[in-house]
Write a structure and sequence with these properties.
270 residues; alpha/beta; Rossmann fold; 12 helices; 44% helix
Length: 270
């Protein structure tokens, strides 16, 4: 009955933490493609190929349902996967859906025409690949009109977080917020479009100002997954064991993950 969680690195652990708290009886298998991280600077074809390989590994581990806890993979690969690659008895879901549901206050199954929503000026902070894909703007346009989205590619932030250099990560976040505010001085809301960024949420909030509503993904994804599994319990796979898999050095990744979540995490070779 396991569910797979995939990310290129450690950022998806923020999602894992939230879904484990929301669904304590469900085993989760986490796959980190640390040998090829970060994805945010790769080409769409690279991202697609690496993501499909990782998802197949999670299917092999008994996870019929896989969550792409990686905005870059969700933006650059998911639509292509859903259109031509995923078999009928499997499911792969991304992290944009719960975010846009929350931002537009519309359920994903609501197929009525796009309409005006409360927010008008949205700041999107994401990796370069996610920004280039314009996937967030595309999905938002299906549901809302009159929303101005200003995207800021946050180069270097993921690398700094993965390296444990939070001083550099904070400096980079403040620099990227300053750059965005030169283009959009007064956003109504901000999207943290990378699962690494919740670790820096307080810094984003402080740099943006208290009047900007900051949307982060982990808790939104957890609530959405609980709702999905209530409606589709057959999508819980045959796997019964939780675990952590990596394409990188298991000892090094385990040490980084333990620091990342502040609890003991042990990865095995994928």
């Amino acid at each position: 009955m396991a569910v797979g969680i995939f990310d290129s690195g450690l950022g998806g652990l923020t999602v894992l933490d939230a879904v484990q708290a929301q669904l304590p009886d469900v085993p989760f298998v986490y796959f980190g493609d640390h040998a090829h991280a970060p994805y945010g600077v790769r080409t769409p074809d690279d991202i697609y190929n690496l993501t499909t390989e990782a998802v197949e590994r999670l299917w092999d581990a008994g996870c019929d349902l896989v969550i792409l806890a990686c905005n870059t993979a969700s933006a650059a690969a998911l639509r292509r996967m859903q259109e031509s690659w995923i078999p009928e008895n499997k499911r792969v879901l991304g992290v944009f859906v719960p975010l846009i549901e929350a931002l537009t206050e519309r359920q994903w199954g609501d197929n009525s025409p796009p309409r005006e929503v409360n927010v008008k000026h949205v700041a999107l902070f994401a990796t370069p690949a996610t920004v280039r894909s314009r996937a967030f703007q595309r999905e938002l346009a299906f549901r809302a009109i009159g929303v101005d989205v200003e995207a800021q590619a946050c180069g270097g932030v993921v690398d700094a977080i993965e390296d444990g250099d939070m001083i550099l990560a904070e400096a980079l976040v403040r620099s990227h917020v300053d750059a965005l505010k030169r283009k959009m001085p007064q956003p109504d809301a901000a999207i943290l479009g990378c699962t690494h960024y919740p670790l820096m949420q307080d810094i984003f909030q402080a740099a943006l100002g208290a009047d900007v509503k900051v949307f982060s993904q982990a808790d939104l994804v957890a609530a959405s997954l609980e709702d999905y599994l209530t409606r589709r319990p057959e999508m819980i796979g045959a796997g019964t064991q939780s675990g952590f898999l990596t394409t990188g050095d298991p000892d090094r990744v385990s040490d980084m993950a333990t620091q990342f979540l502040r609890r003991k995490i042990t990865f095995s070779a994928a």
